[in-house]
Amino acid sequence: MTETSPLLSVRGFSKTYKDFVAVRDLSLDLHPGDIMALVGHNGAGKTTTLRAVCGILTPSAGTIVINGHDLAADPIAAKSAMAYVPDDPRLFDALTVWEHLRFVASAYGLRGWEPAAERLLEDFELTPKRDRLTMELSRGMRQKVAVACAYLHDPRVILFDEPLTGLDPPGIRRLKDSITRRAGEGAAIVFSSHLLGVVEDLCTRVLIMSRGAARFSGTIAQARERFAGGSGHATLEDVYFSATGGDDPRDGERENPS
Ligand code: ATP
User: Is the CB of 163 inside a 6 Å radius of any atom of ligand 1?
Assistant: First the structure.
């Protein structure tokens, strides 16, 4: 790996469910420090892409390389370098918050993880909930537990699918601060959200998906250049509607876009 090697490289990724092409021919590179917003209408293919990148879904075509490891050829090395926070994290009802962290530490073979775990509990205001069963926590607190678990092994690539749902304003700020900090330390982040105002001040890059394909991929400034004539006043929402204008959400449609 050279310094310029991407931490995440997706080439020609497609995913077909029976005869329906959910994502087609998607390629992207993310480097250390990149925070990429993944945006698009309902059904555009965002979750399908994230689930493939984290190895839950097998691509119908294409390659995914994480920190230099091909996900198909060397899944353990690839997955060791990444973390995924799904939109509806499944926790173990019968484990406490601390036991979740212990479980993650054990799964990744971490040693001396306890001080980092304590700091994560502090960061996300979970210290008072340390010994509570997660089934007793609110939705937002469960979301924070999922994020703390995702951070514990210091992943190089972190994927968030709609992570803001259920978080209160301080929780949103803490999550955004933690993402900025981790990117500053060299991680690459993908952040899927419909809350364009929030992603605008957090993300350095944007991937706009439409009907299973990339409509635009680049920096926020490049997106403004392309879709808003370079206007510094254009918001990401302006850019989004210009880029996707006229597209109807296809969720529920069964057309094949290929
Ligand atoms: P949202 O913003 O609503 O979360 P999304 O961009 O994440 O949407 P995906 O969940 O990736 O969209 O879905 C993309 C398309 O693939 C949708 O048309 C969806 O109905 C379809 N799809 C997703 N999972 C399956 C599946 N298991 N079987 C068949 N079709 C699926």
Answer: no
Separation CA 147–CA 141 (nearest Å): 10
Domains of the chain are 1-81+157-258 (3.40.50.300), 92-154 (no CATH)
DSSP label of 133:
B
Residue nearest to atom 25 of ligand 1 (CA): 17
* Residue whose CA lies nearest to ligand 1 atom number 21: 22
Segment 17-68, tens digit of pLDDT: 999 999 999 999 999 999 999 999 999 999 999 999 999 999 999 999 999 9
Give the Cα separation of 88 and 104 in Å (integer): 18
158: closest CA among 79, 218, 212? 79
Residue 241 Cα to ligand 1 midpoint, Å, equals 21
**Mean pLDDT computed over 79-96:** 92
Is the CB–ligand 1 distance for residue 20 below 6 Å? Answer: yes
Structure confidence at residue 22 (pLDDT):
96
Q: Are strands 35-40 and 205-210 parallel, antiparallel or unpaired?
A: parallel
Asked whether 103 lines ligand 1 (CB < 6 A), one says no
pTM of the model: 0.91
Between the alpha carbon of residue 142 and those of residues 20, 74, 131, 194, the distances in Å are 34, 31, 13, 20
Question: Does residue 43 have its Cβ closer than 6 Å to ligand 1?
Answer: yes
Query: Which residues fall within 8 angstroms of residue 53, CB to CB, at 6 or more apart?
Result: 8, 10, 64, 66, 71, 82, 84, 157, 159, 190
Return the percentage of the chain with pLDDT > 90, whole number.
79
Mean pLDDT of 123-129: 95
